């Protein structure tokens, strides 16, 4: 590989002097992540008090027990309980302000609770999984894990209110029950309730770092292909690329020398973005951060090889703008860089596997979002990324030889 290192050093110097490239590779992704981080309350605004969850409550029962349920929900500092008389009032209010959840106590709520026994209260497959059995409706808007946690929290608060009612009818449990009036005036919620709300906030932070940092990192890593293509065009226009082709240096050495500096820049870019994620979001790097290393190296290899292939085919700066930018945005959108892959339809998930972006996201997900890293799975994903890099590089090399 005689001469490859000299070409690498030369291109590294040019890359450092190219202010536009530095902005695109380092500053722009940091600005994107910081702005979106501020919008999620995870950057600069982390000390601000988050909005309370708005819970609409429709009490159609109008009994002492149903009113006690409402009062206990109102005591929780993380809830803003909005009482309504009818579902129509809830719908009208929801059009003006975001309501996170609906709790509806039906007309037979107290009657249904009176029909419960202690077996019902401890049956995990009964009341807990089917609150409609006591004429209780829980409708939660937030999706995925956050919605499940809020629903669990609301039901646990209601359960805490109705449990003494049922237990009081059992001679075995009655002596151990606290004074109902004292419990009703308690100012603080159960310990588990606070833990659940804390878990909801933790889940929101997890969504930020699980999607925002890897997604935008992968997208901006592949923006490198535009810079690589313009580098080839500039050297072609100045005639230096032609002189390299006529020099006693193999075409493979020329391509390696031209590709390596951008590969190193890509690795540095990804490392800086993940360090920024750690500082801005206090994001976790997973149980075994060492596995981020092969994923970063494989992702950068796929990106720079794609850049080489594009550079070997385009001939003008206009073609770079048209094909390069479109390629980056389309592949990023299809693969799940803009929205979490879990939200994509099954057909789109399957199609996205034809992009290196999707495999990079899957690899980062396999490191960041698990309790224990499956090393074989991570290596498999990296192998697929290496296969993409090989195909792109060989295609670019073939095209470069054809145009030499």
Give your account of this protein's structure:
With 404 residues, the chain is mostly helical. The chain has 17 helices and 4 strands. The protein has helices at 4-17, 19-39, 64-74, 87-94, 109-114, 118-122, 144-167, 180-184, 191-221, 224-238, 240-246, 251-281, 292-313, 317-335, 346-352, 356-368, 375-402, and strands at residues 53-59, 79-84, 101-105, 136-140. A 4-stranded mixed β-sheet has the order 2-1-3-4. Helix 3 links the parallel strand 1 and strand 2 (79-84). It starts with a helix and ends with a helix. The relative contact order is 0.11. Residues 44-50, 183-194 and 199-206 have low confidence and may be disordered.
Which key terms come to mind for this protein?
mainly alpha, single chain, four-stranded mixed sheet, 404 residues
Task: Itemize the secondary structure elements and their pairings.
Blueprint: H1 4-17, H2 19-39, E1 53-59, H3 64-74, E2 79-84, H4 87-94, E3 101-105, H5 109-114, H6 118-122, E4 136-140, H7 144-167, H8 180-184, H9 191-221, H10 224-238, H11 240-246, H12 251-281, H13 292-313, H14 317-335, H15 346-352, H16 356-368, H17 375-402
Parallel strand pairs: 1-2, 1-3
Antiparallel strand pairs: 3-4
């Amino acid at each position: 590989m005689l001469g490859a290192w000299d070409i690498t050093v030369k291109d590294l110097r040019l890359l450092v002097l190219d202010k536009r490239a530095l902005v695109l590779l380092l500053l722009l992704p940091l600005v994107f992540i910081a702005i979106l981080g501020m919008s999620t309350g995870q950057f600069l605004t982390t000390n601000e008090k988050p909005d309370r969850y708005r819970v609409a409550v429709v009490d159609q029962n109008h009994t002492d027990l149903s009113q006690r349920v409402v009062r206990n929900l109102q005591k929780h500092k993380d809830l803003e309980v909005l009482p309504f008389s009818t579902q129509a009032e809830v719908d009208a209010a929801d059009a003006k302000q975001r309501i996170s959840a609906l709790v509806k106590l039906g007309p037979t709520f107290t009657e249904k609770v009176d029909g419960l026994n202690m077996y019902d209260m401890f049956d995990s497959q009964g009341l807990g999984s089917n609150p409609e059995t006591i004429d209780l409706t829980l409708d939660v808007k937030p999706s995925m894990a956050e919605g499940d946690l809020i629903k669990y929290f609301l039901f646990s608060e209601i359960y805490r209110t109705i449990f003494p009612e049922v237990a009081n009818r059992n001679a075995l449990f009655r002596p151990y029950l606290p004074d109902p009036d004292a419990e009703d005036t308690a100012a603080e919620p159960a310990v588990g309730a606070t833990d659940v709300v804390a878990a909801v906030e933790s889940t929101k932070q997890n969504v930020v770092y699980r999607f925002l940092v890897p997604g935008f990192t992968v997208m901006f890593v592949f923006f490198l292909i535009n810079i690589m293509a313009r580098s080839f065009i500039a050297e072609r226009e100045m005639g230096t690329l032609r002189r390299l082709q006529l020099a006693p240096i193999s075409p493979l050495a020329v391509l390696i020398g031209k590709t390596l500096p951008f590969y190193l820049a890509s690795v540095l870019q990804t490392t800086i973005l993940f360090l920024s994620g750690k500082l801005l979001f206090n994001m976790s790097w997973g149980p075994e951060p060492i596995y981020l290393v092969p994923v970063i190296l494989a992702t950068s290899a796929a990106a720079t090889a794609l850049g080489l292939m594009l550079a070997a085919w385009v001939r003008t700066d206009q073609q770079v703008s048209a094909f390069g930018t479109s390629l980056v945005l389309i592949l990023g959108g299809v693969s799940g860089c803009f929205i979490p892959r879990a939200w994509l339809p099954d057909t789109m998930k399957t199609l996205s596997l034809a992009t290196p972006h999707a495999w990079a996201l899957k690899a980062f997900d396999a490191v960041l979002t698990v309790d224990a890293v499956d090393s074989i799975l991570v290596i498999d994903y990296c192998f697929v990324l290496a296969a993409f890099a090989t195909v792109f590089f060989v295609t670019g090399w073939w095209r470069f030889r054809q145009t030499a």
